[in-house]
Amino acid sequence: MLFTIVLPTFNEKENVNPLLDRLFDSLRDANYNYEILFVDDSSDDTPDIIRQRMAENSNIQLVHRPKEERTGLATAFIKGFQKANGQYICCMDSDLQHPPEVVPKLLEKATRDNTDIVVATRYAKGGSAEGLGDLKTLYGIYRRAVSIGMKYFTQIIFIPTRKTTDPLGGFFLFKKELLSDTVLEPRGFKILVEILMRTKHGKVSEIPYKFLAREDNESKATFAQGLEFLKHLLYIFRTVPEAGRFFKFCLVGFSGVVVNLGILSLSVEVFNVDKNTGWLAAVIVSILSNYFLNTFFTYGDKKSSSRAESLRRVTYYYIVSVAAMAFNFAVYRLGISFGFDYRIAAAVGIIAATAINFILATKLVWKLPVKA
Ligand code: GDD
Ligand code: MN
């Protein structure tokens, strides 16, 4: 089967029929096999309405989760992914905020361009996020600001989410084989972020759409879900090695400053070492502590395979760190010679050296040996 549309439902009895009508309408000319898979957690008659439609159409499938398995939207999607028979899986809302007419376009785009993920986006030309709220109302402005703020925050830390303009949206399609060697661990609502961060994907493309306002009841998005999303991001940061690697590197670098100042004052104040020797000791020890923290925290996925390799890494790390310090000093002097304030020159030096340090550490120190 080519295609599975996964539809999570939570008390959507008003929406099931119009949604199915519009979906079938847009897929009328489809010359491929597809299925529509509901993962339902409702306590109203949503499942009965779905069952009525199943009687007349064999493309519809339903998983109605028993009370004790109703653990939220994220697990509903996972359930749907497990049951899906299609080569492509499309995720969308069942409340008509995601127009069903866009669904065949997503699939067309994926098969024509051979992309792994196609995102329906609110934020490209031709799309709109008006369903988040009217910009003439304070609530609308607030919701949009939160949404855009979260989006850029996510994209600043997590590079793969920059492949789309709408990583926090819930309307997209992907190749099922992306899931074959990954375990998804989503929390909350943002399943696309999870897929972008944990699967190995190639090209990502987009189709703009208008996210419309919900007609009947309220969105289930709450402040608690916002917090849940931040926890989800933190969890990805901790468990996906590539996620925010540069930020991990900077955190370690910052810890190195603390170690450095600690050793320096300890040697000078307590052990009465002279200030130059104290400085040298502080540098040597803090580079080592950075090395160890980076090994576990920043590059935890690039385990060293032998003692010789570890030795090579420490040695290279010292060389790279000293080179970065020299570079830092060079930028500082250059800044001063161009007439900048010495503090600004120093700050630019630190930033430039940190970036160079990170690039060299990634490319030279923690590069994996090429397998023969
Ligand atoms: N099975 C199941 N279980 N479905 C659920 C649950 C649940 O616990 N909670 C919500 N749903 C279903 C709803 O019935 C709806 O079809 C869909 O999931 C999205 O829920 P909404 O309450 O409509 O979410 P929203 O409109 O706030 O959020 C939408 O926009 C966000 C972007 O701003 C969703 O598309 C999100 O995925 C998206 O991130
Ligand atoms: Mn909605």
Which terms would index this structure?
10% strand, 7-stranded mixed sheet, 372 residues, 11 helices, Spore Coat Polysaccharide Biosynthesis Protein SpsA, Chain A, binds manganese (II) ion, alpha/beta, binds guanosine-5'-diphosphate-alpha-D-mannose, 7 strands
Number of helices: 11
Strand order of the largest sheet: 3-2-1-4-6-5-7
- The computed structural class is alpha/beta
Radius of gyration of CA atoms, rounded to a whole number: 26 Å
Low-pLDDT segments, ≥5 res: none
The average pLDDT score comes to 93
What does this structure look like?
The chain has 372 residues and is α/β, with parallel strands linked by helices. The protein folds into two domains: 237 residues, Alpha-Beta Complex (Spore Coat Polysaccharide Biosynthesis Protein SpsA, Chain A), CATH 3.90.550; 121 residues. It has eleven helices and seven strands. Strand 2, helix 2 and strand 3 form a beta-alpha-beta unit. Helix 8 runs antiparallel to helix 9. It is elongated, with a radius of gyration of 26 Å. The mean pLDDT is 93. It binds guanosine-5'-diphosphate-alpha-D-mannose and manganese (II) ion.
